[in-house]
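Standup notes
- HV: blocked on the assembly model, inputs below
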Amino acid sequence: MTDASGLPADLQYTLEHEWLTTGSPATVGITSVAAEALGDIVYLELPAVGDTIEAGAVIGEIESTKSVSELFSPVSGTVVEVNSAAVDDPSVVNSDPFGAGWLVKVDVSGTGPLLTAEEYQAHAAG
Amino acid sequence: MSDQPEPTTARRSPLHDEHVALGAALTDFAGWQMPLRYGSDVAEHTAVRTAAGLFDLSHMGELWVTGPGAGDALDRALVGNLTALEPGRARYTMICAPDGGVLDDLVVYRLSDDDADETLGHRRYLVVANASNVDVVRDALTERLAGRPDAVLTDRSLETALIAVQGPRAQEIVVGLVDDPAQADAVRALKYYASVPATVAGVTALVARTGYTGEDGFELFVDAPAAAHVWQAVLAAGTPLGLVPAGLSARDSLRLEAGMPLYGNELDTTTAPHDAGLGRVVRLDKVDDEGAPLPFVGRAALEARAHATPSRTLVGLEGLSRRAARHGYAVVTPSGASVGTVTSGAPSPTLGHPVAMAYVTPEVSAAGTELAVDVRGRHEPVRVVPLPFYRRPR
């Protein structure tokens, strides 16, 4: 339903529509595909700085007018920063999901299954 | 994140191509593929509150009941008093099962009598049913009208398109599309819950002043092949005034703020109209020609229900935190005792905090009562408030 072109090629992706930067600490967000499917995001619940998180585990929730989705962590590690600006005004996740709408930064100790932009595009188009 | 929906075999609205051209996100709703939103659902919601929104409601059911006995037949089939309805007026009513459970909530329009039938006064009623219940309502009416040649049921749901124009600028937009000055005056003067035939953008339409948003607005019934022309004309005339096409997502948040029930959420077959605070639609005062109480389907059960102490009450809940209660979540007391269930809930774009409707036990239904909702394992504080959450300024 959503145009998956225009995905930054330098990011890694998950089947649950998250993206993350390579290296550590990694910045994590949700993709434009996810943001558009959710509709207007009105509330974000994110982990706290210092929380230990595990790849594949639920680390937060994303609430839009119509629905609530869980946020899955693509990596294991320790949360070193959360985007408090996005918590205050979640609409930035809709308007700039790959930029100002990032969610958390994680000191990475391990990763779950990740996709390239091309692989994710095929998944999202499917 | 959830995966994308599977390809659908759902019915398409006569306006499907318009939705695709506007880039709508489509969703399956009651067997139809309908627009969920065109862009931002919050922006669509706000446009309806401040200017106007254009909705495709062609999935709804249009069932005509005509003939000299149409009014009496509907009085016996539905809970309302339809013989008392004047030509040109409309009424919100319900069709109930024999046990008093709600089969559907309806808007019934009475049109002017058909002059072709001079002796009997050939009455014409249009019964508008929810898309999810068209088959149920048609089957129930077929059964309840059986053996009555004086009341004929015709299902025109698939041949009829329904376009709603809702919001403070709706009158300006719709009246501007009616060329005939007398008809334009009639549309402008239309009362809430009334209808008048008019030619809109060159197309024969039934123009009704009804809606499901809490705003002033109109609903236009037109033949399906003419729907796209009317849609485009409204869009062209309304866009400069701030009108935007609006999807089912905005429709749901608008009706929730306006405290209007949605069948499947606040109403279902296990619910009596009284449970939802809508006991007034049950007209136990209906009488036959001899002045005796008129029998209608569900009467005995609803009579008993009208005098019984309710076991639950529909209330409004104002969220005091940012996480919204959703359909099916448990309502609890501050100490954690379960006292009810949320029927609808969402963040309110107009009010800026979550709102919900819920069935709760009468002891905790007074306005101001502090309760909580179990939002995915955490108790979020809410307060009972009077419905509706939003009332338009007049």
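- HV (later): unblocked. Chain A touches chain B at residues 1-2, 16-18, 30, 34, 36-40, 42-43, 45, 61, 63-66, 68-69, 72, 94, 124, 126 (CB under 8 Å). The mean pLDDT of chain A is 93.
- Next: hand off to the docking folks.
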